[in-house]
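Question (not urgent): is this output format expected?
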Amino acid sequence: CRKPSEFRFPESLQLKARIEPPFRGLLRCEGYLMGSTNKGLKIALTDLDRVGIADVAHGVATVVLNDKALRCVEASWLKMEGLIANGQRVYGINTGFGALGHAAIDAADRELGQRNLIYHLATGVGQPLKWKEARALVAARLVVLSKGHSGCHVDVVPHLCAILNSDLAPWIPS
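Got this back:
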């Protein structure tokens, strides 16, 4: 990433790390799995293909966040912000989801709606995906977000990049 040395997990994550048997030797840090990497290969985010995603997932490659990807993400974010500022509806941002996609959400309730969406999507059961599988999902999501079609905030991409360039992977139930 641009400045990986600036990425720090909250102190609470570092203090609560523990080994748990179901993770077969992986370290669980309150929602993150740690494995070991041997990174020698650097891949630009805009050049990340399925072979590159596999290399990143296995911990043998580092993702380099380039300016082209950041410009695409920022342009998409600014476009979405402009649409909202002009009073246009943007699905899932100032509207509901699914059957409620037509319903407008008040500006005062948008933050709560986004938080509730995260809570909804962060719920799951089952054994966790393997370290490399979880990292592959993060890498694939990073590629999609870097295309600049999602409207995600520009800060999301460097954080996902930093996670991939560390030994961490999210804890994702299967």
